[in-house]
Design a protein that fits this description.
With 186 residues, the chain is α+β, with helices and mostly antiparallel strands. The protein has a single domain, classed as VC0467-like (3-Layer(aba) Sandwich). It is 18% helix and 33% strand. The chain has five helices and ten strands. Strands 1, 2, 3, 4, 5, 6, 7, 8, 9 and 10 form a ten-stranded mixed sheet that branches. A hairpin with a 2-residue loop joins strand 2 and strand 3. The longest helix has 8 residues. The two termini are 20 Å apart.
């Protein structure tokens, strides 16, 4: 079964039966999806580190109030690379505008602005990303590994991380607690 759709600016919501430890009960925001594959940021896996630790490692001086933001595991690919999801109000050296409302930036200057308390009002900082090769995501969708639906900025930036998986599914009218993680056999 071939699924023909562009999932850019959509959530990928892991089905309860998806046991891959990288994606178990995750919500991934899809930044780009085309014939070559897809790239996204997992938005509900907070790490035990905060922005201040990253700024310290990068030797970026920071104002005290700018260091307490939680950092997320963005996915299993390039886990040493940082990504900042933020509203599209401002662009930095390496910003990809996903929609007029949301962008992702990978350059040092956004972290310097955040350290000076001059960065975006809303942001999600992640290390690593989730990636799929051409047709891989479509195949996983056909195998019912994922639900997908339009992204919601409130869920990305304002909802507590532990609530994002169920909240994203609720946007589609799905209660994940009523779904079994077991595959059915006839």
């Amino acid at each position: 079964m071939r699924i023909e759709s562009n999932l850019t600016n959509h959530f990928l919501i892991a089905m309860p039966g998806l046991q891959d430890p990288n994606f178990y009960r995750t919500v991934t925001y899809i930044c780009e999806h085309n014939d070559q594959g897809a790239m996204g940021i997992v938005i509900n896996r907070p790490m035990s580190i905060q922005l201040g630790e990253i700024l310290g490692q990068m030797e970026i001086p920071a104002k005290p109030g700018a260091v307490n933001q939680r950092v997320f595991v963005g996915g299993p690919v390039q886990v040493d690379r940082g990504f900042v999801l933020h509203p599209s109000e401002r662009h930095w050296d390496s910003t990809l505008e996903i929609t007029p409302e949301i962008s992702v930036t990978t350059s040092r200057d956004i972290l310097e602005a955040m350290a000076a308390d001059e960065g975006p009002n809303l942001s999600l900082i992640a290390l690593g990303y989730a990636g799929w090769g051409g047709q891989q995501l479509e195949d996983e969708m056909a195998a019912n590994a994922w639900l997908s639906g339009p992204a919601d900025l409130d869920i990305i930036f304002r909802r507590p991380a532990k609530e994002r998986w169920e909240a994203a599914a609720r946007l589609l009218g799905v209660d994940l607690n009523l779904m079994s993680g077991d595959a059915g056999h006839a």
